[in-house]
Write a structure and sequence with these properties.
- The protein is an alpha+beta fold.
- The protein has one domain: oxygen-dependent coproporphyrinogen oxidase, CATH 3.40.1500.
- Helix content is 43%, strand content 25%.
- The strands form two sheets. The chain has a seven-stranded antiparallel sheet. It has a two-stranded antiparallel sheet with strand order 7-8.
- A hairpin with a 4-residue loop joins strand 2 and strand 3.
- The chain starts with a helix and ends in a 9-residue tail after the last helix.
- This is coproporphyrinogen oxidase.
- One of its GO terms (molecular function) is coproporphyrinogen oxidase activity.
- Homodimer.
- Its EC number is 1.3.3.3.
Length: 297
């Protein structure tokens, strides 16, 4: 069965990324919690806390099935009930303010032979935007997309800019990345197996990208002011995930496991009143780069 193959390959991605992140961190270990979902399926939640560089990180796998709630049926414009969904979801919050937050999600959803699709993406949320890091990140994503279609990167990059946008702040969550949804043979000119390979390819780019970004920045000196700014930027991450993120909404509406859904939130964030960085400062320069449509390639 195709869906079993997808779930099995996603499990392997989870295993590989957890092993690699433990090596990159140098101190922390993932703790695993196996869980069952009322209604069908379950998952493996793996969390690292208080590591050498990873203050809080989650690498979660789930494969769930059952009856689709009415609200989700309406949102998806479908009439069938029985769904299957599997995916890997990752959010890493570093303790070092010059190492970026990273998020990845790869997923597969199925109602029946006609109604099924792949979705996912990777995006980067630096507390301080380093242009060389941003170019490296986008270059790697473009390579991963170009292996399958030259159309993918520009399309999915624009989609990420639009999706990871905090409307009430009029700023992007970070420097974007790629985001895609509802990929199927009709809109990709790829077979189901090829789309799965693309999804796995995206999953496999995560570790080399983030290991490199950790190594580039982990030994840089930082001050208390850098930490304060980090907590301030983390609050934007929280705002996006609780107000706009569709994965969070889907998890809550399908009776998902709360701890696994909210593992994306940082261990600490600050909401100072009307915090405005000083013009010309590193913080000010970073905020100027939180906008849609920047060509990092």
């Amino acid at each position: 069965m195709f869906k079993e193959e997808v779930a099995e390959r996603y499990k392997q991605i989870q295993d590989e990324i957890c092993r690699g992140l433990e090596i990159a961190d140098g101190k922390g270990k993932f703790e695993e919690e196996l869980w069952q979902r009322d209604g069908g399926g379950g998952g493996r939640t793996r969390i690292m806390q208080n590591g050498g560089i990873i203050e809080k990180g989650g690498v979660n796998f789930s494969a769930v099935h059952g009856k689709l709630p009415e609200a989700v049926k309406k949102a998806f414009k479908v009439t069938e009930d029985d769904f299957f969904a599997t995916g890997v979801s990752i959010v890493i919050h570093p303790n070092h303010p010059l190492v970026p937050i990273i998020h990845m999600n790869i997923r597969y959803f199925e109602l029946n032979e006609e109604t099924r699709w792949f979705g996912g993406g990777i995006d980067l949320t630096p507390h301080y935007v380093f242009e060389n890091d941003a170019r490296f990140f986008h270059h790697k994503l473009k390579q991963a997309c170009d292996d399958f279609s030259s159309d993918f990167y520009p399309k999915f990059k624009a989609h990420a800019d639009d999706y990871f946008f905090i409307k009430h702040r009029e700023e992007t969550r970070g420097i974007g990345g790629i985001f895609y949804d509802r990929l199927k043979p009709e809109n990709t000119n790829l077979s189901w197996e090829q789309i799965l390979d693309f999804s796995i390819n995206i999953g496999e780019t995560f570790l080399p990208i983030y290991s490199e970004l950790i190594d580039r920045n982990r030994d840089k000196e930082f001050t208390e002011a850098h930490k304060e700014w980090q907590y301030q930027r983390r609050s934007r991450y929280v705002e996006f995930n609780l107000v706009y993120d569709s994965g969070t909404k889907f998890g809550l509406e399908t009776n998902g496991r709360i701890e696994s859904i909210l593992m994306s939130l940082p261990p600490q964030a600050n909401w100072g009143y009307n915090v405005q960085p000083e013009e010309g400062s590193e913080e000010y320069k970073s905020v100027q780069l939180l906008k849609k449509g920047i060509n990092w390639i």
